[in-house]
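Supplementary Methods. Inverse-folding protocol.

Structures were first reduced to a discrete structure-token string of length 277. This string, shown here, constituted the complete conditioning input.
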């Protein structure tokens, strides 16, 4: 059973208040709509992140050994200049799905694009999959490796790749490599290590088309999420199903959300996932 050391305490006025791995964090979130709930003490935050001028500033001190321990794996957390801390908790529904997946993932070949600090990579590795983890940022790939180490998954068959996602996929297609499990969580905009520009609204269709080729004839699982305004889960579903042409299996699409104890829901992206039956 997985344990998520996370609670969204409240959000509103473009900020959210969260308890992440035991630390109360208040940070700016442009997409946090509406007003704040009454009776929530925003002054309890131990860490506060916000933009000041053109810089992101953190006030407060994070614990030296700040961890997000899910059970199957753990992530080391730290405040970063992008306003992130090393985990996207809205993905916890997908780690749970992988953990509970009835298909034996042992030895299956997975690709995780835009893998960040490795949560989904480690989730797949903890079920025995061989994972190729791809991210453009060398620093987050090193962070993901350190997370594998502290999760006692350092000896798992994981390849760590610093590369532009689309360039890597095209190279794998040329080499004739194939994958059983496809995972991608692309941002709206990004940059490859050699300046390659990723623009979701322009590139997503091409990425899905290439990924369908990469898993043609042996696909067992697909997990695609994104956080781009205007790209809904039904669109993700339609585009994946059109390209992958599954003739069986179980697919579902839904909005990713985080909930407060007062039952407010914070929209946190969209997701489509499919698994063979
Ligand atoms: C939203 S995060 C992914 C979160 C991750 N799936 C998780 O749950 O931990 C987006 C990631 O995409 C990476 N990225 C941005 N542009 C990229 C590109 N062109 N190729 C590969 N990775 C890229 C960033 O470095 C960042 O780590």
């Amino acid at each position: 059973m997985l344990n998520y050391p996370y609670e969204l305490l409240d959000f509103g006025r473009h900020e959210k208040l969260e308890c992440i791995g035991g630390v109360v964090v208040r940070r700016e979130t442009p997409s946090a709509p509406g007003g704040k709930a009454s009776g929530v003490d925003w002054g309890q935050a131990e860490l506060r992140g916000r933009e000041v001028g053109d810089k992101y500033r953190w006030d407060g001190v994070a614990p030296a050994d700040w961890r997000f321990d899910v059970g199957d794996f753990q992530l080391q957390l730290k405040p970063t200049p992008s306003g992130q801390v090393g985990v996207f908790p809205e993905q916890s529904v997908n780690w749970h799905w992988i953990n509970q997946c009835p298909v034996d993932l042992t030895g299956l070949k997975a690709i995780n694009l835009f893998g960040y600090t490795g949560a989904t990579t480690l989730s797949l590795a903890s079920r025995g999959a061989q994972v190729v983890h791809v991210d453009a940022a060398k620093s987050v790939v090193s962070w993901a490796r350190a997370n594998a180490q502290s999760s006692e998954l350092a000896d798992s068959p994981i390849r760590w790749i610093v590369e532009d996602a689309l360039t890597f996929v095209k190279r794998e297609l040329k080499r004739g490599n194939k994958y059983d499990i496809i995972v991608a969580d692309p941002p709206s905009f990004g940059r490859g290590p050699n300046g390659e520009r990723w623009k979701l609204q322009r590139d997503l269709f091409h990425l899905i088309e290439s990924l369908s080729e990469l898993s043609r004839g042996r696909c067992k699982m697909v997990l695609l999420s994104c956080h781009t305004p205007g790209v809904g889960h039904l669109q993700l579903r339609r585009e994946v199903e059109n390209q992958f042409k599954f003739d069986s299996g179980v697919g579902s699409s839904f909005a990713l959300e985080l909930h407060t104890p007062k039952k407010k829901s914070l929209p946190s992206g969209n997701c489509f996932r499919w698994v063979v039956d």
